[in-house]
Specification:
Layout (H helix, E strand, L loop, with lengths): L7 H11 L5 H25 L4 H9 L3 H5 L5 H25 L11 H34 L1 H10 L8
Length: 163
């Protein structure tokens, strides 16, 4: 939805509603897994398209040659997306570790535990909203070709502004 200029907040809320039957940690993991499939495929094709005939064919089918041809000149811009993905994984990992703390040693009414627990939904929301923004950038990158790549990557930091 965001690829066409949609609202990242509305899309994130839609994803959260779809996953409403799951715990907050599972919402983050499921959304990251779905994004990882597409993002991983994009990077695998990007890495192998010059040496692997199958990757080259996939790049052609997905209309990636123009983007991949200019990959080196856009490397620093792609690093922004990669760093955000790493941060999302780190926060998700922390949430999972937190949820795995042994309950027999921690009282559920401990102020620190209550405070930390209240921040998890916000963290998951921002993980999902970041995924939506990254997916939107990558979708636009692939769909529009090189002439729009630089503009989209320059706008990436603004995709996360609070509305």
């Amino acid at each position: 939805m965001c690829a066409g200029g949609g609202d990242t907040h509305a899309t994130a809320i839609g994803i959260l509603n779809t996953l409403s039957n799951y715990g907050w940690d599972a919402k983050a993991v499921i959304t990251l897994a779905a994004f990882a499939v597409n993002y991983g495929e994009f990077w695998l094709v990007a890495q192998l398209h010059k040496t692997n005939p199958l990757a080259k064919s996939l790049a052609l089918l997905k209309q990636l040659p123009d983007v991949l041809e200019h990959r080196e000149s856009l490397k620093t811009r792609f690093n922004v997306v990669n760093n955000l993905v790493k941060a999302m994984f780190e926060v998700t990992h922390i949430i999972i570790k937190f949820k795995g703390l042994p309950k027999q040693y921690i009282s559920p009414n401990t102020p620190e535990l209550v405070t930390a627990t209240t921040h998890i939904p916000t963290a998951v929301y921002w993980i999902i909203r970041s995924i939506v923004a990254c997916a939107s950038v990558l979708t636009n990158l692939i769909g529009m070709g090189h002439r729009y790549v630089i503009i989209l990557l320059l706008l990436l930091p603004y995709a996360f502004s609070i509305t």
